[in-house]
Amino acid sequence: xxxxxxxxxxxxxxxxxxxxxxxxxxxxxxxxxxxxxxxxxxxxxxxxxxxxxxxxxxxxxxxxxxxxxxxxxxxxxxxxxxxxxxxxxxxxxxxxxxxxxxxxxxxxxxxxxxxxxxxxxxxxxxxxxxxxxxxxxxxxxxxxxxxxxxxxxxxxxxxxxxxxxxxxxxxxxxxxxxxxxxxxxxxxxxxxxxxxxxxxxxxxxxxxxxxxxxxxxxxxxxxxxxxxxxxxxxxxxxxxxxxxxxxxxxxxxxxxxxxxxxxxxxxxxxxxxxxxxxx
Amino acid sequence: xxxxxxxxxxxxxxxxxxxxxxxxxxxxxxxxxxxxxxxxxxxxxxxxxxxxxxxxxxxxxxxxxxxxxxxxxxxxxxxxxxxxxxxxxxxxxxxxxxxxxxxxxxxxxxxxxxxxxxxxxxxxxxxxxxxxxxxxxxxxxxxxxxxxxxxxxxxxxxxxxxxxxxxxxxxxxxxxxxxxxxxxxxxxxxxxxxxxxxxxxxxxxxxxxxxxxxxxxxxxxxxxxxxxxxxxxxxxxxxxxxxxxxxxxxxxxxxxxxxxxxxxxxxxxxxxxxxxxxx
Lengths: 279, 279
Description:
The structure is a homodimer.
Chain A: E1 5-10, H1 16-27, E2 32-37, H2 40-48, E3 54-61, E4 65-66, H3 68-74, E5 81-89, E6 93-96, E7 106-109, H4 111-116, H5 118-124, E8 129-132, H6 136-143, E9 150-154, H7 156-162, E10 166-168, E11 178-185, E12 196-203, H8 210-220, E13 225-232, E14 240-246, H9 255-263, E15 266-278
Parallel strand pairs in A: 1-2, 1-3, 5-15, 7-8, 7-9
Antiparallel strand pairs in A: 3-4, 3-11, 5-11, 6-9, 6-10, 12-14, 12-15, 13-14
């Protein structure tokens, strides 16, 4: 009997994280099962504490930007690494048993979905209360046990699973809406097909050109950066951690040279891993 | 009769934005009055549409990072500029008429306050609903018209104004909690005492070292960057706007040279203004 690999994801069924976890399953069929968890932190703690081998969490949305809690928890000096990334197209529907928008007094959803539909909420539902839930599907699942007046922002997938009518389709503000999910585990990925590497670092001291020096190491070997993002180091305003994604996998001949040269120029440095995109 | 200058702020009374607006008033007494608005977007639209001369909005918290909607609205190619920055120390209390934590079924607050108290909420109030409000003071103001079971995360100031008991003091996760507010207007600040300049830009094309080139212009003149932050350009994953703060005011001899050299290296460039810190 072979042990199954379990992937933790931000549940319940029907979240965008669930869709991303299903893509991991399709690319490795047969030996994986999926386990929902109630929050992003809980997914990452499940992997960290060896409850599950892997976890899937949202990292970045093309409209709202980074998912702060994911970056902050990955940045820590613990064995948690990126094994793959998964890109999912996002569409938001307003789901409700109410007969029209006028009778909606409360809209529930995840904070990122709320932000991505802010224009619709502020113009068409400006008097409604906004109730934050731990996921979009959690909001939709609550509609069945309540009466009129409640609505949820949810995915086309959750509309099907929970069988709640679409009161208004496609209420997002922007057409180019995608979310990047990360598959994480306790050891770095060893698949040689990786095409991207993520690092998190702090500058050694506050001096002119500190970040410029760091980026110079990548430029020296013509490694393209696809993302640079600062997050508060939570030590007061002006102290940052930098998240850098570069377009080089573990087989790139110069990647290790760059990382080695960064060790002497950074206060803190964690290689989050080299990985591929599952699509 | 002299016309009074009106400053719009994220209301109601007792928000941290209100405290920041009051600091602007103290530094320019006599001729300013304050006008609350129900959201960050509404404050910025009030300035943009000439309803008020000035506005105060939160821009960045030392724990949670940037306030996305503020950055996204300031980045647009319209005449909206930073006139000053104001730093406020943040402390969060759990305010409620309930007798103990066990009887709290719903916690209300602004999304950033909720994020900054996440550890307390997840460990001590894990079964409570989280209701998002447009400001911390809005949440506290709602407590008076409701009975038991409701709580709000609010400031020491709003505790006094709305006379709601402190059920649990200081529930924030981190000790170094400060928020940076911006005073904005329709023209760039002309005060020569400015000490910082903010720019927003996009890279001209996706090539190795694009951002490195930009930062090189600052390094060439030894201008220190105090912040660099990427935000989605909302044109799909991988397209970013960069917000750069540098420690040089409008009187710095090299600032204009750097900005001029950036014009040829950027796709989009907006000088958000040179300004001072009001403390």
